[in-house]
Design a protein that fits this description.
mainly alpha; 84 residues
Length: 84
């Protein structure tokens, strides 16, 4: 039965690490280092308990919005901002 206990400990540590990362990532981007940009095109981060959203799409969205802002796109051309 030692293997069962070891497996459970590893699973709990892994889940704790993942949730710690998600909480820190959200707090760092949405609370501690939140920047106010107009137009509000950047999405600050995924809420730690929202498992339906993904990090890759949010990063790609923010990169696209950065490129649009650099070329001087009109505000009407921006897609709607998704709030957390």
């Amino acid at each position: 039965m030692w293997w069962l206990r070891t497996t459970l400990v590893i699973a709990l540590v892994a889940c704790g690490g993942i949730m710690s990362f998600r909480i820190w990532y959200w707090a760092d981007n949405c609370i501690f280092n939140k920047t106010y940009v107009y137009p509000p095109v950047y999405q600050c981060g995924i809420h730690p308990f929202d498992f339906t959203d993904n990090y890759i799409e949010k990063r790609e969205h923010n990169q696209e919005m950065s490129e649009w802002v650099k070329v001087g796109a009109k505000i009407e051309d921006f897609p709607p901002h998704k709030n957390d």
